Amino acid sequence: MVWGRVIIGDSRSLREIPDKSVHLVVTSPPYPMIEMWDEQFRSLDERIGALWTEMEESVDDKVNLARRIYDLMHENLRLTWIEVYRVLVNGGIACINIGDATRKIGNLFRTFPNHARTIEICEDIGFVTLPYVLWKKPSTKPKYKGKGAFLGSGFLPPNAYVTLDCEYILIFRKGGLRKFRPDDRRRRASKYTKEERDSWFTQIWSLPGVRQELSNSERRAAAFNEQVPRRLIRMFSVIGDTVLDPFLGTGTTMKVAMELGRNCIGYEVDESLKEIIREKVSSVKRDQRNAGIQLSITQRRGKVKLNELSN
Ligand SMILES: C[S@@+](CC[C@H](N)C(=O)[O-])C[C@H]1O[C@@H](n2cnc3c(N)ncnc32)[C@H](O)[C@@H]1O
């Protein structure tokens, strides 16, 4: 029997989860300074909305105000990472998929290096940074007249920009190695093959165009390619473990975790995704690892109040 527990609520507090009870976190947060997530950050923290308004009206302070917005977006994510640290067992692992953002602020084009900021914040919380994966996406080159182009000016140096076509899968551990008894049967049953090890434990994962096969709602939530959580869950957890996704989206991590015989807890603040999550998780393929499945979806009462959260 495996179980899935969805909490429709804000993961800046994981109050439903006891300390040291989760073995693995696999997640992808909203990416700071990527336009599709602007509105959500505003709705989570009204100070962000106020700064955007100030920036739009500002003539000569735009760059500084954008920097403050970026900082504040990461300070909001930090609250979830603090909670993730609390609920992980010693030796538990957190895999965070995040991409950098490029954006024009006033007339100045620049990069916001989300991966670097996330590493700094997680180190600050106490996580140990492990070697990470670069997820090479199928071409995300901007289009110009229907053809792939590069940002910047034609063929003349030096003012064109490199296209960001990799995202990061950052990998952190809470403390030292997780301990197992030498004869642990669940661990042995979770073994991967030599071929799997050789292709998974390399730094660049080129996962071709599966995103194009996603439904519209999955695209809107920036759903994972299923292969990403599938690999991570097999690499960093054993059958019977509990996996957490604090930014559940359409429920990809939960579906895959349950297919792999792991239990899963997911938090999602956007209530409109509830039925999509239910549908996706109900489509879990059954085998001997998950012959019985149990899914619960609960709505948390009340909003998270920023001033009540621990820092
Ligand atoms: C990049 S998407 C995750 C997509 C997911 N990996 C999938 O495959 O569908 C990020 C999700 O986090 C949710 N979210 C953002 N802030 C949140 C918060 N504070 N608590 C819970 N969910 C949040 C968003 O609504 C969005 O669905």
Summarize the structure.
With 311 residues, the protein is α/β, with parallel strands linked by helices. The protein has helices at residues 38-44, 46-57, 62-87, 114-125, 185-189, 194-200, 216-220, 227-236, 252-259, 274-282; strands at 2-8, 22-27, 88-98, 101-105, 108-112, 128-136, 143-144, 147-148, 166-173, 204-206, 242-245, 263-268, 293-299. It has one domain (2-304): Rossmann fold.
Estimated share of beta-strand residues: 15-25%
Strand order of the largest sheet: 10-6-9-3-2-11-12-1-13
Tally of separate helices: 10
**How many beta-strand segments?**
13
- CATH class, named Alpha Beta
Unreliable stretches: none
**N-end to C-end Cα span:** 37 Å
Supply the helix-strand structural class.
Answer: alpha/beta
Largest sheet: 9 strands, mixed
Overall shape: it is globular
The level of helicity is 25-40%
Ligand set: S-adenosylmethionine
What is the H/E order?
EEHHHEEEHEEEEHHEHHEHEHE
What count of structural domains?
A: 1
Average pLDDT metric: 92
CATH topology: Rossmann fold
CATH architecture: 3-Layer(aba) Sandwich
What's the name of the CATH homologous superfamily? Vaccinia Virus protein VP39
Radius of gyration using CA atoms only: 20 Å
